Amino acid sequence: MKKIKDNILHDPILKIVTIILIIMIFIGMPRINDINFTTILTLFTMMMLVSIIKDLSILNFFSNYIINISHSIRQVVFLMTILSFFGSMLVTNDIAIITLVPLYIEIAANQNLPIPYPVTLITIAANLGSSVTPFGNPQNVFLLSYYHLSINQFFNPAFIVLLLGIIILLILLSFVSNKKMNSNNLSVVHLNYRKCFPVIILIIFIFLGIFSIINLWIPFLITLIYGSYINRSTIINVDYSLLLSFIGFFLIVGILSRNQLVISNLSLLLKTPHQVFFSGALISQIISNVPGSVLIAKFTRDFYSLYLGVNIGGLGSLVASLANLLAFKQIQIYSNKDSWSFLRIFTFTNVVLLLLTMIIISFLI
Hints:
By secondary structure, the chain is an all-alpha fold. Helices cover 73% and strands 0% of the residues. The radius of gyration is 20 Å and the shape is globular.
């Protein structure tokens, strides 16, 4: 319980959300039905799954393998970026960053590798990769439950982000130095395959629950039981500060969505697919893409344009995505001397990508 309390009390994102919520109370009062409990239950289930994956060292296993077979800086960064891209599809962008950024910084310190630009690539990859799957990031979880989407309805726009993401990453990776390095083999991480196999089953059940093919409580209970079997601390290890932040987002958006000034302006801004797309991308730069998607969804039924807007909107500013803030937080913890250099490179790269992708996608809507 102490770990949960410390996590809640010291989380900077939750503190910001709490301050904003207190300010919002002067505009209007929150309501319990502002909270989408289906989304919260899905996130809770996903966080337990992530806790299981971390306990079984699955990501560390693949990360260490990649590093051991690399012979140049570009190869290390390429493989770590690709792992972030595809790994975030399964374990969310937040977890990919929390796992891979500290790992890369440790390797960089030992091998004298650059940090700001590679971590920028890992973060961009996590944001783009997580956009491709229903459970890769919180806004997708919300959009699925809010619009009651079928598999085809979700993956039609997701395929665009997948192709665009691969092209973007390949171009960005070409700027990484191809200098050879003397890689010291890391300690071997052994997997317990007997315990890892059920994780695949859990992912399938969660996938079916998200699309309402089965009742969401079924994967929740199965994940809870198996997580408790793997580690009794599975429930304790859930990031409750993120859950509370998400509840705060719902309450803040609920207050804003009932404000007449906000209603009149958004109603004017969200009449066409292009307006929905640009609003999603730009609003995300100010209040992050998670609350941005919750706010805009209340005023449009155009999932296609909103999905593209808020997921591409994860690029750009540091606050555009919670994953961006987490990456900066990891830099401050593990390599504080590189924090401002990272911020400059990250902001420049992301803003350029945001503008380019907005132009490209505007022709596809």
